[in-house]
Amino acid sequence: SIRVRPSQGFESADFFVGGYWLWGIMIEALADIGYDYNSMHMASYDWRLAFGDLEVRDRYFTRLRQHIEMLVSMSGKKAVVVCHSMGGNVWHYFMQWVTHRVHRNWVHDHVYSEVGVSAPMLGLPKAFYSLLTGDNRDFASMGRGFSAVMTHMFGPMTRRRLWRSCSALAMIIPMGGESVWGEELAGCPLVRVGNVSLDASASMDLLGSADLMPEEFRRIAPWLLDGVRRSRPPEARRGEKTEEPPEHAWANVLAAPLPFAPEMQKYAFYGVGVPTDVSATLEETGDDKGTPRYTLKRDATEHFGFELGNGDYAVPLRSLGLMCMKGWKDERRNPARTPCTIREYLDNPQGFTFEEKGRATLQAAKAAGASPAQMMTALLTGGYSRGGQPSGDHIDILGNREMLQDLLTVVSGGQVQERIISDIQALADRWDGG
Fold first, then answer.
1. Alpha carbon of 395 to those of 276, 304, 391, 408: distances in Å?
2. Is residue 86 within 8 Å of 47, Cβ to Cβ?
3. Where would I find the H helices in 230-367?
4. DSSP 3-state assignment of 317?
5. How confident is the model over 172-192, as a mean pLDDT?
6. Which of 33, 117, 298, 329 is most exposed, with minimal Cβ within 10 Å?
7. What confidence score (pLDDT) does residue 354 get?
8. Contact 410, 267 (CB under 8 A)
9. Which pLDDT score is estimated for 370?
10. What is the pTM (predicted TM-score) of this model?
11. What's the sign of the alpha-carbon dihedral 316, 107, 417, 412?
12. How confident is the model at residue 361 (pLDDT cuts 50, 70, 90)?
């Protein structure tokens, strides 16, 4: 039988294809200040699996714990953990696992600081829409001709089956219910069906409810029916220890408290100023057999059925920053009062002219020893020159020079100061904290 497993080591995520970097620039920057294979570990994971299944199938969390313990033992210093995107959610789950299954002080004993880069701690609507309709803004904005070809070859039901086969995607659907994703905070609902605005609970019921749970979701039904819908940690009864959150809620940052690690520093680094989908208008057109029951009503808005807000293209601002700004100020969610510092990076796509980007791409490609074919790929994709100083994009921020400088400061034992560019403070003031 054929088994597909995640690639391991730095090569698993430094570059995607020739010239299209992911973690590559960050790895090089860390190497410049002395980090190498003996002091760094790339903890690649299978992003198709629900977080709990990473341990069940691959013993992923056991291996991650062992790697961190080895690095701490070799250096004599606590580790700095850097997570990007869903990696931040996986890390939060790991902290629950290691606290409740290994030792309650493990994080305190082994982790100096945690840097979440573009981490969707409260989930993202894009994942929800993909799982429900098989569609998202990336497909919807392709243009009629290309979209028609794509739909003919790779239709919405096929796309939906693909998304639903990746249980991890369901682990990052919007968390926090109406208080985070409702009209009062955002000015628009997570979902409209026709002209009817749905509250967050009714929106979640479209994916799966106690009465009707699609076959693809039955393995993660406890998460969909309860875990993702929680908004507070369990309350301690008088004279008793705080109740441990159920395992199916560990991925929910609102319901699963941070471990007691008073010396740890948390950082949230993310981009802002990029239009990001925060709401969608749907229509009921299918039967869930030949076509999805719900599809995007593309003529409902000028953005193909989506309403856009501030974010980093993939993740809305509230999911990027609300937990650091307010959520983890709550002692029930953060019993050690671990400090969390926000650093925002404003996207500036006009930072380079087209000619400057082309020259920078070729120079970087040559320096990396790229072949002529790879140079052409880099020019077409922006590969080697993506990111840089101006970028706040969800992926390209990994090459943002200012962000990398801040990261190097943290991993060198320094601290960076909070910087707020967006209206995240105003959002936090309106949010009731769940």
1. 14, 23, 9, 18
2. yes
3. 317-325, 354-367
4. helix
5. 94
6. 33
7. 42
8. yes
9. 57
10. 0.89
11. negative
12. low
